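Holo model, zinc ion. Inputs:
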Amino acid sequence: MTGEIRSHRVDPDAGNTVEGGGTRVYGNKFLSAAVRLGNIPHSRVILGIESIRHRSAKRDPHRDDEGTAFVKLARYVLGRAPGLRAITYDTALRGSHRAPLIADGLVVFTTQHGGLAPESLQRFENGPCHHDLYVAEGRVCKRLITDDGTTHYTPLPVEELERRESKRTRFYHRLTIPCRVKNHTLRIRVDGTPEDREIDPSTKRQRVNRTEHLRQIPPDTHAGRRLKGFRQDSESQHSRFDQSYPHKRVPAYGADAALLIYIGYAWLSNSVARAKITHALAA
Ligand SMILES: [Zn+2]
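Output:
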């Protein structure tokens, strides 16, 4: 003991959070949105960044949780870049977050949240036929029960993702139900409807949480895998930011100071992208 009083600086905002991949990390949490050209390296332009809440609303009343902050940021970007068509994020985004962005006309892609049990959607009836339709793995399926009682959910082929413009954009899947009588085609809304939000008197629950279960682009499809690639790609931006500092630690105390450093990083990174793109377009 020396009797000397040492004061340790502690980041008042830091805490333990879980990253997209499930790793626990200590620090602050940030959200960023970026866009890049498909074929030019270092062309990523960071469009917006925000500091987000990783503790209870009571302990941190001034910041939004990840999903809320994402919706605000996406709408901010869309307001300034109306050509935006699709946006990719991770499983932190649930149906309730996707719904307002889908209504704004965006295709919102995230990998499907695990642990969602198949849900009954509707019964299709036509002449002598009836088919019970379920939602599983983000898409409409036909339920089949085999001789030994096992239940199978067979995905129905999506012929087209239709987009209909009105005040709020509607999206439909044009589907085929293969059938021995005759193949049926039907349209299913993949955005939330007012009827969905009605309370079912028998279950006392909302009838169906459509945007949670049904996905504009089902994850395990060619288009889904392509969009998933953009999400994986954003990790390179995060790791480049981490690696810019010794011990992968942003040299700041508090979320506001760290956000300021992130803004500086984005400014530099965007300047590099601007130089690269200008050079590539001139070539
Ligand atoms: Zn049929």
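Residues 129, 131, 179, 181, 184 surround zinc ion (CB under 6 Å). The chain is about 30% helix and 30% strand.
Archived with the compound record.
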